[in-house]
């Protein structure tokens, strides 16, 4: 069973989510504090960490950054009440493999955790929208065009996600396999994390993202 | 101690700062020249924030000191000669001031620290005693000169001494009073802001909680919670949902209305930015709202997704649900929502509407409006 660690400074939410997921995952630990969470995650190296974005002491970004340095195999799924682009992009660029909002249905959350555990990326409709928005702005001259542009197929997959479709529906609608959908999304995630394109930087700075 | 002028001069000449200060005091008595000089120097001499303790000039030699003293006396004589002079009291006062300076310098009292107590609010016994002595001395001179009608200069000096004494004694207290007032004002502004936020939040949250308690329907509760969340979010993060001039804002507010009316969550995602002429804008938003309404009313879906993609050449809006779907042929003719409110409306304004529906899988309405320009 996939081992799962929960980090959230709201204890009530922590216990709720933990109860909800206990059947499907092996919840190996939880913490409501950034520093304690980093130590505990290093000690138990779970498959997936479900991490809240807004927390005192550096927030989810601090947890992801710290663990990513020493334990690159631990995967992160960001979970937050906030749907603000600066939060989403900051988490993804620090190394989280996905982002979902706290209002997500329990089944969808389980599905998202399994995807992240399998090394795939998970984009909420709004995250897909942000990414399209960021990459859609006019393309300047770049050193690495491959990283700085989304392929038409990737854009199409993101559009479908933004329109609220699940991966298997997208696969059927676009006549491709689910595996291909996953590959496209992971490739977008990689571009999002690695691309230094001016537009992304400017887009981020417009929205006060570091 | 004030602008650091005396300290700076004492450093570059190798004389104790107290003598420089004494010289300024005496020059001030000579028609205020010292005061003007002090202010000028404070303005002109550049600030040197570094601490030169280690590299301070070695103390001036005896001949140098005598030379400086002679120059000072010469300057005083010059001022007396040209008439910048408070009166016969100046020479005795000069002697007293320098006498005091020498006394303090050799006694080893840390007078700078004591005087800083005036501004930092720390009281020292030296300050209190010194201040009281100055007040008494000043008052005595004032009272004595009242019946003898001595020169105006003596009176002025006595007054200055008395006021100085008062400042030294009461300074720390006055200062802390001002500081308290400032702190209080800051705290009041902050608490007013907090009260405003609290008033808004309490009112809307309490309303929602009250409604939830009176509701048995879990679906209704979810809707209430969602609309409260939306409200709170737009208030806390000042999202542009209230800006109905933009297409995104108009779609978001339509989504909120549909959600409230039919208890189905409607999420809006938009990409890009573009504007439309008012009639096209109106047509697109109305058609999209109608599509959301239809989905909420008839599809049975648990959520509705709205996705808008805006470029300068065209605007696409997709309204998708994963509900029952329907067959166009089975829709009664008298239900004109789709044909009139969506398709015809879009066509009238140069747009298109494509409706795809698969029974059992859901419906997607794709609206396209061309030409951001008229």
Describe the structure.
The complex is a heterodimer of chains A (210) and B (374). With 210 residues, chain A is α/β, with parallel strands linked by helices. Chain A has two domains: 1-119, Rossmann fold, CATH 3.40.50; 121-210, Arc Repressor Mutant, subunit A, CATH 1.10.10.10. In chain A, 56% of the residues lie in helices and 13% in strands. Chain A has a six-stranded parallel beta sheet, sandwiched between helices. The mean pLDDT of chain A is 82. By secondary structure, chain B is of the alpha+beta class. Chain B has two domains: 5-133 and 168-183, no CATH class; 223-370, 2-Layer Sandwich (Heat Shock Protein 90), CATH 3.30.565.10. In chain B, strands 1-2-3-5-4 form a five-stranded mixed beta sheet, covered by helices on one side. In chain B, strand 1, helix 11 (278-299) and strand 2 (304-310) form a beta-alpha-beta unit. The longest helix of chain B has 62 residues, at 152-213. Chain B is elongated. The chains are: A alpha/beta (210), B alpha+beta (374).
- Work out the number of β strands of chain B: 5
Biggest sheet details of chain A: 6 strands, parallel
Q: CA-to-CA gap between the ends of chain A?
A: 37 Å
User: Structurally, how many domains make up the residues of chain B?
Assistant: 2
- Kindly identify the CATH topology of the largest domain in chain A: Rossmann fold
What's the CATH C level of the largest domain in chain A? Alpha Beta
Helix content of chain A: 55-70%
CATH first level of the largest domain in chain B: Alpha Beta
Quick one: overall form of chain B? elongated
Physical arrangement of strands within the biggest beta sheet of chain A = 2-1-3-4-5-6
How does the helix and strand content of chain B classify structurally? alpha+beta
Q: List unreliable stretches of 5+ residues of chain A.
A: none
Structural class computed from helices and strand pairing of chain A: alpha/beta
Largest sheet of chain B: 5 strands, mixed
